[in-house]
Amino acid sequence: MESLFASIMTNGTITGASFIIATLCSLALGCFIAFMYAVKNDYSKSYIITLALLPAIVQIVIMLVNGNLGTGIAVAGAFSLVRFRSAPGSGKEITSIFLAMAVGLATGMGYIGVAIIFTLIITIANLLLSSLSIKNYGAEEKILKVTVPESLDFEGIFDDIFCRYTTKVDLEEVKTSGMGSLYKLTYKISMRQNVSTKALMDEMRVRNGNLEISCSRPMLVRAEEL
Fold this sequence. Notes:
By secondary structure, this protein is an alpha+beta fold. The chain has helices at 16-40, 45-65, 69-80, 91-108, 112-131, 159-165, 197-207, and strands at 140-149, 166-177, 182-191, 213-216. It has 2 domains: 10-81 and 89-131, no CATH class; 140-216, Alpha-Beta Plaits (2-Layer Sandwich), CATH 3.30.70.260. 50% of the residues lie in helices and 16% in strands. The protein has a 4-stranded antiparallel beta sheet with strand order 2-3-1-4. β2 and β3 form a beta hairpin.
């Protein structure tokens, strides 16, 4: 058992054998994580490839900075310049990314046994929890964007509709469009349980003259590229 949880690198020294073993293990565990994620979730090809390769990428970074303060600072500075422009992921996607990174961290430090056992425990637990019928009892928060004509006094015009379909409403933004002939309103709303989003939008279309309305989940703020 002690050898199972021991590092394959002696005194942090990277050898050819330890590098090959760690890399093959990272790739194998990455593919396993990607496969287990695909069992119960919708996915894209690019995301599955990312999950499969991420442990090996993190592993080599950890190996290169192991025990070298200067290299660690340089790598941290390089990674701080990277900004991603992509749609925010779900909780399951973020969990899978962190799992892949944790596995790469373990293999990069030579703890192959720890990486294997940890991967098996987390993926099996995730699969079991995904199989459970867990209801969402929290209020469903959404972003509602409504376009109204300039002639319409939008303040309070939708209050009675919001009372029937939502538990909380905040007007986040008001801006003009179409050379000032239109207003675009952005609301953050919390939907009531068992209410129809379509019915909410249909009633609002009657008030805003059948202009554009969109309803979506809240989007995370994207980091700006340097």
